[in-house]
């Protein structure tokens, strides 16, 4: 699939990275795809020439089991991504001062409420994960069983997410 520049710009791969995890700290390219992952979500888009191959990055093609999931028809079908909004709780330590040096909220002034299970196609997913997927255009979830990754697809790419443990 060829994407226009505008379509590519809609997806900020960095928002799917985890700066605290070495292998997932930034997007990386491998083969015909560019990937981003945070341990809960793995997304891939057609290779972005500006994003390099990285020796430090997770190597997706080393994990044949993961790659296979991209091609398997989901057991419980495709479902529209539900709209999920995670409420934020004012930090009790700094009382909501953004840019503070409070270690409790990392300077955000608030933090997200706890993860809630949100059931899609009979399988529970993390409210935090589903909220994050909300930026992906026309995102759908291809639901597999509780112990396997489920698929996601959106305008411009696809990916995998894990359900939450019951
Ligand atoms: Zn705080």
3D structure, described in words:
There is one protein chain. The chain is α+β, with helices and mostly antiparallel strands and 166 residues long. The protein has one domain (5-161): DNA Polymerase III, Chain A, domain 2 (Roll), CATH 3.10.150. 11% of the residues lie in helices and 27% in strands. The chain has three helices and eleven strands; from the N terminus they run H-E-E-E-H-E-E-E-E-E-H-E-E-E. The chain has helices spanning 5-9, 64-69, 127-133, and strands at 28-30, 33-37, 41-46, 78-80, 88-90, 110-112, 117-120, 123-126, 140-142, 150-154, 157-161. The strands form three sheets. Strands 1-2-3-11-10-9-4 form a seven-stranded antiparallel beta sheet, with no helix packed on it. Strands 5-6 form a two-stranded antiparallel ribbon. A hairpin with a 7-residue loop joins strand 9 and strand 10 (150-154). It starts with a helix and ends in a 5-residue tail after the last strand. The site of zinc ion (ZN) has 8 residues, from loops. The site of zinc ion has 8 residues, from loops.
Give a brief outline of the structure.
The protein is α+β, with helices and mostly antiparallel strands and 166 residues long. It is 11% helix and 27% strand.
* Topology, number of strands: 11
Rounded to an integer in angstroms, the radius of gyration calculated over CA atoms is: 17 Å
Terminal-residue CA separation: 36 Å
Report the helical percentage.
10-25%
Specify the number of helices. Answer: 3
Predict the CATH topology: DNA Polymerase III, Chain A, domain 2
Q: Shape, please?
A: globular
Strand ordering within the main sheet: 1-2-3-11-10-9-4
Q: Name the structural class.
A: alpha+beta
DSSP strand content: 25-35%
- Average pLDDT works out at 89
Question: Main beta sheet, described?
Answer: 7 strands, antiparallel
| Low-pLDDT regions | none
CATH class: Alpha Beta
How many domains in all? 1
Oligomer kind? single chain
Order of helices and strands: HEEEHEEEEEHEEE
Present as ligands are: zinc ion
């Amino acid at each position: 699939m060829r994407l226009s520049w505008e379509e590519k710009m809609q997806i900020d791969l960095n928002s799917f990275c985890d700066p605290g995890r070495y292998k997932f700290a930034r997007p990386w390219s491998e083969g015909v795809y560019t990937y981003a992952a945070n341990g809960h979500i793995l997304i891939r888009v057609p290779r972005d020439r500006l994003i390099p191959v990285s020796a430090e990055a997770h190597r997706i093609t080393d994990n044949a089991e993961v790659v296979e999931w991209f091609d398997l028809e989901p057991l419980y079908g495709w479902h529209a991504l539900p709209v999920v909004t995670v409420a934020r709780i004012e930090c009790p330590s700094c009382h909501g001062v953004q840019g503070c040096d409070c270690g409790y909220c990392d300077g955000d002034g608030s933090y997200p409420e706890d993860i809630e299970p949100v059931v899609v196609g009979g399988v529970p997913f993390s409210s935090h994960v589903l909220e994050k997927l909300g930026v992906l255009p026309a995102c759908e979830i291809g639901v597999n069983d509780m112990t396997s990754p489920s698929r996601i697809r959106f305008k411009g790419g696809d990916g995998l997410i894990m359900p939450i443990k019951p």
